[in-house]
Amino acid sequence: MQSQGVAELTRLAQEIAGCRRCPRLVQWRERVAHERRAAFAGERYWGRPVPGFGDPAARVVVLGLAPAAHGANRTGRMFTGDRSGEFLFAALFRNGFASAPVSSSREDGLRLRDAWITAAVRCAPPANRPTPAERDACLPWTVRELRLLEDARVLLCLGAFAWAAALRLTVAASGGGEALPRPRPRFAHGAELAGERFTLLGCYHPSQQNTFTGRLTAPMIDAVLRRARALAAGAG
Known about the structure:
- By secondary structure, the protein is α/β, with parallel strands linked by helices.
- The protein has helices spanning 3-17, 23-35, 72-75, 83-94, 132-148, 160-173, 208-211, 218-232, and strands at 53-54, 60-64, 115-119, 154-158, 192-194, 199-203.
- The protein has one domain: 3-Layer(aba) Sandwich (Uracil-DNA Glycosylase, subunit E).
- A six-stranded mixed beta sheet has the order 1-3-2-4-6-5, sandwiched between helices.
- It starts with a helix and ends with a helix.
């Protein structure tokens, strides 16, 4: 990506971090940042919408649900500083998408290779449950992000909420030239949906609920990441 595109991604990140579109989310993220969890009482929380991050030339975009209240809402970087991120970054590292297996802060030196991480909703939601209206209010940010990520070809959707958001994103990013398929494709682990620009690829979310119960295992997410790389390379 040319330096102009990188600068535009930086400007977009600054705009996202200043967003106050959803009153419920603004109130919650700031309340959590003020009250803080005891384990992080000495830290200064980010407490704002969380921009995406990664390789500006990424062909694979990892789309999560929303920042965790004491994870990305604390650190200011998607999936950084929580259990879901521990599982995800370890998998990204094993498969060559990340420079390190652990991400603890924005200053830890971790870099993504051929991958970009973002989320359907940019603010930490109460009970980790954003509403459809909050999802739709956030979509324009990700549409702009995807237009700047010119090499992106695969949307790796972590969970059903991200899958539903990605279906809408593909339509919005095409300027309305691509319609939602009917019947609407259902989310499943390993599900694929090819579109004009993006292929959607489903993966169970790396939440503790899934990883601690064995619903999502390391071999399962590794297989999905290998498939994402193959699709991004046009291997079919």
